Amino acid sequence: MLYLTVSCSLISFGAIDSTALNVQQLIKSGQLDDALDILEPRLQHSPSFSDFYNAGVAYAEKKDYRRALGSFESALKIDPSNRKAQINAAFVNKKITPKEVWENPFSWTDRMIIAFRSFWIPAILAVSLILSVIVFLYVSKVSVRFSWMKKMWFPVLLVLSISLYALNRLHNHHRNHQLAVLQKSKPKVFISPDGVPVEGEIDLPLRLNIQDYSQDSSWVSINNNDERYWLKSEDLFIY
Amino acid sequence: MVMKSFILHILIIAFTSVLWGQKEFISIESSNNPVEKGQRLIITIKSNVEGTLDFDLPDEFEQSGATESGMSSEVSYYNGRGKVVRFSYEKISGQFDDEGTYRVGPAKITGKNGVVESNILEIKVVKRQNMISENPADNMNRAIFGIIEQSGREIYEGQPLILEGKVYAQVDILQVERYFPFQLEGPSESHELQQSNQVTRNYEQIAGRNVMTFRIGKMLIFPEKTGEFVIDPFETILFYDDKRSVFPERTKVRSNQSKVIVKPLPDGVPPSFIEGVGEFKLEANVDTTELEQGSVLTIKIYVFGHGNLHNIEPPKLNLPKGMILYGDPEVDDSVLYTSRGSEGMKSFTYYVQANKSGDIKIPAIKAGYFDLTSEEYQVLDVTLPVIKVNPSEDAIAAGSTQNSQTPDIQEKLLPPMDHNDLKIVDDSMFVGLEGVLWTSTPIVLAFLMGAVVRRRKSTEALRANRNEQNETKQKVLQNLNDIGSDENDVETLQSVKLAVQNYLAIKFKVETSVISSTYINSLSDDKMAPETKSSVISLFKSIDELRYSGGAVKGDGEHIAKTAKRVINEV
Question: What are the DSSP calls for B148-194, one per residue?
């Protein structure tokens, strides 16, 4: 019971954002800088979906489409199936690269796992308890009314494995920042993090997959046409 | 047998003597000179000298087949007088694949009288001549000849070209040994339509003669450029029945050389041209006629027909405002290569996002192609049903209705929101070591509790068994005490044995009937000491002897009962 009580108390996802309404009004009234002054510090610490989304709208209204795209895709990292964020991301993407069609940066598997994000922890807890009963029945060899539960070991184990996998993937999805949007069309590209620049112009895609970070995270490495390059983190919107 | 051997020896000695008597010579000859590039020729080395032959062929000579050796003779005339010259020979067949003049020889033979050296033969190899006429009747001076048959002398760009070899023979062809197909001198895509080892013979009347024919190496070719292209001859090596010879003869047949002109398509290319040349049909469908705004509609276009179907481009979609095409269409095909070109079906799947609500009419899909029969461009079209796009909840929330202008991602940014406060889930307690602890703690506890319950159950069962053993022991000993000195009948002896068996059955948790001397003997030493085993077995033996011998006397019953008590206490 204690385990259940503690576990249930852990299953809570965010709290109501009281300042979101204010930010919304500021953006609607065209006070974009004021709205961003509220939002930008929040983006550094425990940002919500609407923080990223509204920041994206504010940036887009300011014609800073690259930063807006990064914000919308960051919002989508929290909720990849949100249609409003997708529509706005497609809109700003078209403004940056009119010929390229915007695609959701997150795979269908990730979207499914995130869509059921409130399911995995309760599922793990519930299934662990059922598995405990089954283990008890097997080990103690007692014969009780619910001895039929012993037959359920395989599906229970399957659900537990899937839930653990999904939760681990969800954790990695949120904790690892592997995507980035270029903040400039032609950023300086380096062959190493110590600042040796690459000669000539490198044609980089708008959205990059980050391969590695430097020790202080001020540099990121990317792969482009099988070549490894380093860029300054400040030139990217990393999410 | 002896007679035959004698005659053979005489002949060999006579022949060798004749050779010995002739002037030594060695010569190199060629069956043709000059020869065409790739034409088969035979180089013959003749000599009447016995010894080791030293002879090298030019590296450019491609030998085809084994070297033939033998002995022969010929008559040479000098001053009107004929002289028989006997010699041994070696024939080497092959070809030169490049033009030029090649020196063959000299061949040298080291014999008893020293080294004899041959002439040097210069073979001139010239470019290939088109010796075969396209008209079979003009080639009837040849026993076997081949002609390239082609579907057209002039074709359009993209049009399939069918090439086929046809062999005419005035002798009986026994076997096709090898086949080297014709080749178009230019960029092209080729598909074999017939295997060269499968030919069917026919007979035709040509110039009044009955000629055997067969077709070989049928091929479908798609030239990839316009212009005039040479079709290099096909070659085949055949075995045929030569009436003048006992054995089948082998020959190489090279066909005529041909040409094809690939013309560019005429002007007036329709905008919807899909690069198709041939004859085609068009069909299309959608996966649904009603969907929610923002959902994806799947449009599938099928092109059926023949010609250069495999090379056609996807038809262009002319989408109305608010419909966005995602990427390139998925292409799937089911194409066979036949005499009509590539034939079958090719499908194109387009994914279109409907971002605008209302009844959407997608304009007719058009596909233009060049029709080879009419030699004109044709435009196919197919219409799709009207698609009903229902407004999504997001669009309604953004202030639009089905009848009003919905926000289009191409034109308008959706407004900020005030209610979606979803954050990143703090799941760190369930990942890594902490996650393992959270998941495994109840399972480990359940395991431990289960083990405790099991142990308790087992201890209780053990205790109950011990109690039962003690009770039985007391009961058995009491019964044995009750047996007096006068009791020596069979029933008494049997009851003693049964009492012991009952006790042992409870002790070892088996049925009473199982307890016997054999069972006792089979028990391990840790279950029963060897001395105790002997006592029990001896007791059972004594009881059985007294029961079945009928010699029990007074006091036997009491004695047996005492022995039984001692045994039970020992156990």
Answer: EEES-SEEETT--EEEEEEEEESSEEEEEEEEE--EESSSEEEEE-S
Q: Which of A175, A209, A224 is the last residue of a domain?
A: A175
Residue B417 and residue A54: Cβ atoms within 8 Å?
A: yes
- In this complex, which of B415, B430, B454 lies closest to A139 when CB atoms are compared? B454
Do A95 and A164 reside in the same domain of the chain? no
Clarify whether residues A36 and A69 are in a common domain.
yes
Backbone angles phi, psi at A79, to 5 degrees: -140, 85
- Report yes or no for ipTM above 0.85: no
Establish if B237 touches chain A: CB-CB under 8 angstroms: no
* B2: contact with A, CB 8 A cutoff: no
CB within 8 Å of chain A, chain B residues 177-236: none
Same domain for A94 and A186? Answer: no
Q: Of A68, A102, A136, which residue is a domain's last?
A: A102
Instruction: Tell me the pLDDT of chain A (239 aa) as tens digits.
Output: 445 554 444 444 433 445 556 888 888 888 999 999 988 888 888 788 888 999 999 999 999 999 999 999 999 998 888 888 888 898 899 888 887 788 889 988 888 998 888 888 889 889 999 999 999 998 988 887 777 888 888 999 999 999 989 988 888 888 888 899 988 888 888 888 877 788 877 788 888 989 888 888 889 998 887 788 899 888 898 88
Q: State the smallest CA–CA distance between residue A40 and chain B in angstroms.
A: 15
- Chain B window 301-330: which residues touch A at a Cβ cutoff of 8 Å? 324-327
Structural domain span for residue A15: 2-102
